[in-house]
Design a protein that fits this description.
By secondary structure, the protein is mostly helical. It is 85% helix and 0% strand. The chain has helices at residues 2-42, 44-65, 69-79, 85-119, 125-131, 134-150, 154-179, 184-200, 214-253, 255-271, 274-290, 294-321, 323-330, 339-364, 368-393, 395-421, 427-447, 458-469. Helix 1 (2-42) packs across helix 2 (44-65), helix 9 packs across helix 10 and helix 12 runs parallel beside helix 17. The longest helix has 41 residues, at 2-42. The chain starts with a helix and ends with a helix.
């Protein structure tokens, strides 16, 4: 009875968090759909490709220069006792300010080089120079968001994201309508500054008047940045691999091919990823606070994988049946070329969910070296399989490479968590990790019979899902 009650409590916490951030993500997604639809109509696939290359480049630089401040700060604050948390919150805010100023200056100086490397022309130098200030906005926002997340102030965090999405969409529509290509840089500036403004307006309850000596603050900042450095190296490798893949696609197929790939990638990693974003907001701080207690960690990890898998599986099946409609709504019929990639990659999201949970355990343990190794190996498998498969199979090959990557990554993260931390998952969870992707693969096979055939699987999932989640 106690075990059932504990599982019900955990499910309730996850569902409440999912309801908050799921609702937020639905609204944010609607705003993104409006922006993306208008971009697709008004500036076409080439415009989407330009935005993709700007964003990919800046995200890579942000990851490298900002030392993954948010994740490392969440881990440190959540794992600390109540007496140290005000100090760590202050250290996090200062880290965000210093990192933001320094990274903005560096990106502005690198603008000519970034333009040539990314677009093979100096024409985009001023665009990168203008967008350098987003580094400051991003760092400040990450610092404050880390404090809110670690302290469990998820509603405040969601509220800030909601208003930022609404404001940026309200600004983007007239800008794209009147200025078309010239609006790309202004629109890319609006969201990070909106996010910074509304995030800073949220109260976190930590006393800003730091009474601690400078040496204590410096030690706290060093602890945050040390872990952040390892996470930065890991994520930087992943983003560099993604960047290299986009550059290769651009060289082989042009900006339109990059835009089509980006459309599919966004659906798989952003729109489907709302489940990961929503659940991680509560899961990572909770895991960081309990990771030193093995039995509790086993329960928390097994439950999280169960919830993620059973929530994702029906979404994947519905997507397979309605893929064309989804692409037409989100983009336009011109982007249907991304469907072969998306239909294979969507199956891999189930493996991504399981491996994502176990990767968070590595981060929660503060084991930066192990996390770096897993991410480097995953990126190498992705890039090593994506390039030859794209050459031979086109966009479908990119989807297959995505699937190969997460088969490998799931096995790797499980091995690390089991051998280094003694993680023990129940046989039921193990069967779900393997079985959920196989069910999705079966739905993909049924799609070749009729577009609606995958939906026949849904009624069969209701009973086992309710049993597993109770």
């Amino acid at each position: 009875m106690g075990k059932v009650s504990r599982h019900s409590d955990l499910t309730g916490r996850v569902v409440r968090t999912l309801s908050i951030f799921g609702s937020l993500e639905v609204i944010t997604m609607a705003c993104a759909i409006v922006r993306t639809k208008l971009v697709a109509i008004w500036i076409g696939a080439a415009g989407v490709g330009i935005i993709s290359l700007y964003n990919t480049t800046l995200e890579m630089l942000k990851t490298v220069m900002q030392l993954n401040l948010r994740q490392s700060a969440v881990r440190e604050i959540a794992a600390a006792d109540s007496t140290r948390r005000p100090l760590l919150c202050s250290a996090t805010r200062r880290c965000g300010l210093y990192i933001g100023v320094i990274s903005s200056i560096i990106v502005a100086l690198l603008a000519p080089l970034l333009s040539r490397l990314t677009f093979d022309t100096p024409a985009y130098t001023w665009g990168f120079a203008a967008l350098s200030v987003t580094m400051f906005a991003g760092a400040v926002t990450s610092a404050k968001s880390a404090v809110l997340q670690a302290l469990g102030l998820l509603r405040a965090l969601a509220r800030a994201s909601l208003w930022a999405a609404l404001l940026s969409t309200a600004a983007a529509v007239p800008l794209f309508y009147f200025f078309r290509y010239d609006a790309i840089v202004p629109v890319l500036l609006v969201f990070p500054f909106s996010a910074m403004l509304f995030t800073l307006l949220q109260r976190d309850g930590c006393d800003r008047r730091t009474r601690h000596v400078t040496a204590e603050l410096r030690r706290s900042m060093t602890a945050i940045l040390r872990l952040g450095g390892w996470l930065t190296l890991a994520v930087g490798v992943t983003l560099a691999a993604d960047y290299a893949l986009r550059i290769y696609i651009n060289a082989r197929g042009g900006l339109s091919s990059v835009g089509i790939f980006q459309a599919g990638y966004t659906v798989i990693n952003s729109y489907i990823g709302i489940f990961f974003t929503a659940i991680s907001m509560e899961f990572f701080p909770r895991l960081s606070a309990t990771v030193s207690r093995r039995r509790i960690t086993d329960v928390v990890m097994g439950h999280e994988i169960t919830v993620v898998s059973w929530l994702l599986l029906p979404v994947v099946i519905i997507f397979l049946a309605a893929d064309r409609l989804i692409v037409d709504i989100l983009y336009s019929s011109d982007f249907r070329a991304a469907l072969p990639y998306m239909n294979v990659a969507i199956v891999a999201t189930l493996l991504r969910g399981s491996s994502w949970c176990m990767a968070y355990m590595i981060m929660a343990r503060g084991d930066g070296r192990a996390y770096v190794v897993t991410e480097i190996l995953s990126a190498a498998v992705m890039l090593g399989s994506a390039i030859p498969l794209y050459n031979t199979m086109g966009f479908e090959g990119l989807g297959l490479a995505y699937l190969i990557q997460y088969v490998f990554y799931a096995a790797l993260t499980w091995s690390v968590c089991r051998r280094r931390y003694g993680l023990r998952l129940s046989p039921a969870v193990g069967r779900l990790i393997v079985g959920a992707p196989l069910i999705a693969a079966g739905a993909l096979f049924l799609k070749s019979v009729a577009w609606w055939a995958p939906l026949l699987i849904l009624p069969l999932l209701v009973r086992p899902a309710l049993k597993a989640l109770r």
